[in-house]
Every structure is written in structure tokens, then in C-alpha cells.
Write a structure and sequence with these properties.
Elements (H helix, E strand, L loop, with lengths): L7 E6 L14 E2 L2 E2 L2 H8 L4 E8 L2 H9 L3 E4 L11 H12 L5 E3 L9 H12 L6 E7 L8 E4 L2 E4 L21 E3 L4 E3 L1 H4 L10 E5 L9 H10 L2
Parallel strand pairs: 1-4, 1-6, 4-5, 7-12
Antiparallel strand pairs: 2-3, 6-11, 7-10, 7-11, 8-9
Length: 228
């Protein structure tokens, strides 16, 4: 019989305003709004006891309730284009009056599965010294080959650490790099309620398969085509 550790709560931030993709949290993908996907995945998790959606938007709140989430009513000052995740999560902790660890899911990373979320929770719980867990997937091309622009010239991203044209090395000779993907993050109020960073300096690395995020309308159309 599988032992499942202490159950955590999931919080899904989903504000009403979005300039990149207007109303993206309620866009329909395969007949369901985006906000439904992380809720349904969380409902199937063995290691989650409650699911909350933090929103300032009544349409999002109504849909979230229909799919089984509870609502954290977010004040307008924490629902702007410049609002930070740490502000949203601090408000959620104060709203719930609960300092337990939080599983952070996102409607903009919709195609998540419950088994991977459960694996992340179990991995997190066995590493007491971490300040957070963050998911990422391996970049198709290592960032050691990337450039930044310095006026009219290209410069390597790691010129301070390496000499010469290291970016022309074969891919196999360069370190792998990973892109945070929002699949599943886990954060500790015991850390971020008392510090200026959400994840801290001991982010537990949790690698997932490649995961599509929706930041632009083009991202949504790609996901729509892939999962049609």
C-alpha cells in the first residue's frame, strides 16, 4: 500500500485582466476553459486536501466553483499587470489564515497531470531544507549558446564566467540549462511571509517533460492545434 504524506493545499492565481491574451483564463480549449485544467488535475491528486483560485474576476470565480475550487477574493491592487506572485500568495495566506505549504498551479500551464503533481509533493516533503520547489524542463538548446545584445554587437550570456567563443562549442560540451515552466511549484509561507523572495535560495529542482505555457495568443493557437 502506498503511503501518501501530509496533504497540502493548491492555489491557482487567475486574474481577470490580461493584455497579452485577453480573458485567457476562460478561453476554451477542447471544450473546457483553461482555468478548469489545473483544477481538475488537482482534484485527482492524492496529496492535496483543498483547491483555491485567487481571482478578482467574478466570471473566473463562477467557473472555478463549477469545477470544484474554492475562491480567494483578490483585491484589485494585487490583480494588476505589475502585481507580483509573492504579493498574491501573501494575500492568500492572510485570507485563509493558514501557514501550511502551498502547491502553486497555473491556468496558463493547463496540460498538467495529477501523477506528476503528486510526485512533486512527495519529493518536496522529503527535502525539509529547501525553501521551495520549482518545475522546469530541459531547454532544446542550452542557454550557453544564447546571445544578449550590447548596442550593435552580440555578446555571450556567460562572458564573465568563460573566455573565448565558448558558445561555438558543440552542444554536448556545454552544460544543460532548464526553463521554468509553471507545471508545479511548491512554496513555503514560513519563508516568503518573512523574506523578500517567493522561492528563496534553496529551490528544489524538479524536472518535468516539456510543457507548453500560454503567454501570447500564438502560444494558445499552438496548444489548440496540438490538442485539438
Amino acid at each position: 500500500m502506498t503511503f501518501y504524506p501530509k496533504k497540502l493545499k493548491a492555489i491557482i492565481p487567475a486574474r481577470g485582466g490580461s493584455k497579452g491574451v485577453p480573458r485567457k483564463n476562460v478561453l476554451s480549449l477542447k471544450g473546457q476553459p483553461l482555468i478548469a485544467y489545473p483544477i481538475l488535475a488537482a482534484k485527482s491528486c492524492k496529496n492535496l486536501s483543498a483547491i483555491y483560485v485567487s481571482t478578482d474576476d467574478e466570471e473566473i470565480a463562477e467557473i472555478a466553483r463549477e469545477y470544484g475550487a474554492q475562491i480567494i477574493k483578490r483585491p484589485p491592487q494585487f490583480a494588476t499587470d505589475t502585481s507580483l506572485d509573492i504579493e498574491v500568495m501573501r494575500h492568500a495566506v492572510q485570507f485563509l489564515n493558514d501557514s501550511g505549504d502551498i502547491v502553486h498551479l497555473r491556468a496558463t500551464t493547463p496540460m498538467v497531470v495529477s501523477t506528476m503533481i503528486d510526485r512533486a509533493i512527495e519529493y518536496f516533503i522529503t527535502h525539509h531544507g529547501c525553501t521551495a520547489l520549482r518545475s522546469a524542463h530541459e531547454c532544446p538548446e542550452t542557454a550557453f549558446k544564447f546571445f544578449r545584445k550590447d548596442k550593435m554587437y552580440w555578446k555571450g550570456l556567460f562572458d564573465k564566467e568563460f573566455q573565448g567563443d565558448y558558445y561555438n562549442q558543440p552542444r554536448q560540451n556545454l552544460p544543460k540549462t532548464y526553463q521554468p515552466n509553471g507545471y508545479v511549484d511548491i512554496i513555503r509561507p514560513s519563508w516568503f511571509m518573512n523574506n523578500d523572495t517567493l522561492h528563496g535560495d534553496k529551490m528544489l529542482a524538479f524536472e518535468t517533460p516539456f510543457m507548453h505555457e500560454i503567454d501570447t495568443f500564438e502560444d494558445f493557437k499552438i496548444l489548440e492545434a496540438l490538442y485539438d
